[in-house]
Amino acid sequence: MARLAWARSHLRLRANVVLLLSLLALFAVLTGGSTLSSENLHNLTQQIAITAPVVLAQMIALLIGGMDLSVGAVLAMSGVLAVGLQPLGLWPAVIVAVLFGTLIGAVNGLLVTRAGVNAFIVTLGTMYLVTGALLTYTHQQPIAGTIPAFTEFGGGDILFVPTPVLIVLVISAVLHGFLVYTRTGRNLYAVGGNADAAFVTGIAVQNHKLLGFIIAGTLSGIAGVLLASSLNSGSVQVGANASLTSIAAAIIGGASMFGGRGGIGGALIGVIVLGVLANGMNAVGVSTYYQIGVTAVILIAVVVLDAVNSRVVSRPSLSNISRPSLRRRSNGVLVNRTP
Amino acid sequence: MPDSVTRALGDGDGEGSGRQWKVPFASLGRGRSRWIVVFIRNEMPLVLLVVLLLVGGLLSPVFLTPRNMLNILWAVSVLGIVALGQTMLLISANFDMSVGYVVGLVGVVIILTQTALGFGLVPSIAAGLLVAALFGLFNGGLVVLTGASPFLITLGSGTLAYSIALALTGSKTLYTPIASFTALGQGRLVDGLYYSTAVFLVLALALEYALRRTTYGRSLFVLGTNEVAGRLSGLLVARTKIMTFVLCSLFAGLAGLMVTSRDGSTVANVGVGYLFDSIIASVLGGTSLFGGFGGTLRTVVGVLVLGVLSNLLILMDVPAEAQAIVKGAVFLSVVWADGVLRSK
Amino acid sequence: MLSRKLLVSLAVAVLAVGACSSSATQAPAASSGAVQAKALSICAVENVADHPSITQIIMGMTDEAKIYNANVTQLDPAGDPQKQASMVQDCITKKPSVIAVNAVDPVAIVPSLKAAQAAGIPVVMFNADTNKDGQAYTKTFVGAQSYDQGYAIGQMMDQQMGGKGNVVIIQGNPGQTDVINRQNGLEAAWKDTGASFNVLGTQTAHWSKDEAVTVMTDFLTKYPNIDAVMAQDDGMGLGALQAIQAAGKEGKIKVYGVGGFKQACQDIKNGTYAGTALQTSYMIGVYTVRAAYDILMNRPIARQLLTPTASVTKDNIDQWIGQCAL
Fold first, then answer.
1. Strand (E) positions, C7-139?
2. How many CB pairs (< 8 A) connect B and C?
3. What is the pLDDT of residues C10-22, one digit of tens each?
4. How many C-beta neighbours within 10 Å does residue A332 have?
5. What is the pTM of this model?
6. CB contact C201 to B (< 8 Å)
7. CATH for C38-144+281-307, among 3.30.750.24, 3.40.50.460, 3.40.50.2300, 3.40.120.10?
8. Do A142 and C108 touch (CB under 8 A)?
9. Cβ under 8 Å to B: A residues 132-161
10. Do B105 and B131 touch, CB atoms closer than 8 A?
11. Nearest-CA distance from C52 to chain A in Å?
């Protein structure tokens, strides 16, 4: 089952890869090649690497049939903790920051599985709580980093490759291996695709969902540390739009609002496409209003092309007249469903 | 039947994968008091609203006054109109992430046609609503034709609407030249009851009736529950979907009209907050994000919960930091309470 | 269905295009000898784009740039510090003469400023400055001090109300520099003039006129005897005024704002609005381009170039009404 889901995501991957290459070519031509210069590629990959972990987190959350609206708030709070706790030492601060993400992920997971409800409301609630904690802890002021070595995570280089790129590549490889080659990972697809069927086959659905949220929370924590490191400060204003844009990037990369779909490769492609687009438009000097419009058009184009593509490829039959209805599984609702 | 299958089929609660942990207060609700528990569980949003009203009344002497209640109604009526449209769409298992930006765009179109094209009151309003309907058509058409994710399509079209609104206004505030324009948004039917509130409540009732008693309304539930079955039983899926998208955008446009005439001016980003809040209000009221369940009267309750919460936080002079914490605590306690009651 | 071959050939094509283009643009450096006017190119990164005051700044920059024949690129990170950092990075790649930055977060921008200096590109801060650490990497700051604006309003309130009364305050987004500065300026002015205002409540309306209407309405419900409301910008002030009018208390409550919005100035003229402090955003844009040119020509430049803040009340409205442009 997971193989089929992974293969379907693979299709989206291809369409997006074509788009990515076309964008790269386009911007290269428009700027006379400067977007492909080593300096710009260095910046571009660093920028992408910093925005990637949040998208990976969201992809996992969508995979298990939920979503995580608290990613932005966790991102900001982890960053603030990583900077604010530096008096205790560099590594203690970083570890606490990442663990904060894990903690919130666990809270999300426990509430979703224990109460059997809406990831939307649960993660919304934790988002507000974390935001409140953030504003209180910082008194609404940004915090400056005090340990120079801290900037190495997000802003440093290892042999000319930006450090965050290496960190994200390692994380992605581990996650990919987990999702595709381990039983627990493959079970996550099953849990998201059809929780009842998964349960009947003996998978501990609750535990797997909890695991998914914990992974998502941890990734958000890591994202926060990388971001704070690149800015060398804990900022209250980061992550404001992160939940929405990460959902969009994950879905571009193959995830589905109804769960059971997606993959690390796809999510990365989604982030890369958006990153290349932004970087390219800055390089060309596209005016602000048009940047927003262009991003919107590309988003619609990607989605439309992808949908048409997957429709054409799979044989039309009763089973795929409309995909969403097949994803109907009985995730709880806030109030009891009267038949 | 083997135990595992029974548990898998579920007990009608919706979460069929069995409960593996104990929930606190799990022994509530046995015996006589069971009907209370069932009632509370079914009407959680209403209970929440009542609880908030009671708490508010205790905490602040001015909270339960008629003036304050009417103010709350007025404050939420624009958001409410947007949420009504969103609810209809959610019931049919779709999303509209463009409503916030359509609100702004329609306001911009209305005032711009007044200033730049010299339209009168009615033609400019018609132009604005027409733009809203066209957007709905665009959204619905794309979703139906391509079968793509409505979340992403509407996110894209909403961002497009935003960039158009920004380009048209140049980020400036546009003021209406027609003095009587503000009569709609600021006018009252009777003292305290504003037009916008009346419109909101009337529309909520009308839509609720449509949902329960008309074919169109019931077909939305079918679409949200099992689209294939609906199609097989003769439902015109495409047409219904497109109509609902148009309806949702029209409501966003109506909200844009209301807020613009209330302020007498408009900016491109006036509606940005309504997007998230419209979904929150619908979900808080009990409408399911996955379709097939919900109602507009429920959304009225959801919207009121949000309004009462904001009002209370200001009346209690709660600082900004604590406001977020309170909101989060309220949402999470709803979840917890729901979990307790559903484990019966 | 795309074959692997097609994918690979596409990738090769892209890289080929890139390689060719970059080698083609290694144009020979301008030949030395004749004296040439230096071309001014500015890469400007705003903090947000959808605010009227920023539009004014952009207009000022555009108009002044025409005089200098300068090329100005405008980028907008929509209030996200991380996006702003990427945009500054992308600016550095473009190698303009000067980079101009309107800081979203004064601390988070510092590494980007450091990078710009390391790349040899001078930086002008405008509208929102960076902190002391960051200032080591910048040449100057062009702007209106929001602290001074708050101070001006504080003084105005003391003069007009005799230093006594019940006041409510409506603020912008929590955490933003302007919010903190205007509040500090207000309180400092009250301290200096010995005013003893009684602040009944302080709430945020997130710079939104619509939200300010609701906030003010709730304030009016709770406090029956408000004498004045101080809104941190005129948008919110106009919203508060609307709420006051709806409650039938027009004329009994003084409304103060900041920014010099057109509508607010009109209302000052006909007596319904008590006062505002001008934010001459257009001039900020103009001065920024001038500062950039001076830096390009290696002229000495002041550490701060402040545009004037003027207190505008009914007494001097005729003098200033032309400046109310927002």
1. 41-45, 71-75, 98-101, 123-126
2. 73
3. 555 555 544 444 4
4. 25
5. 0.82
6. yes
7. 3.40.50.2300
8. yes
9. 132-133, 135-136, 140
10. yes
11. 14
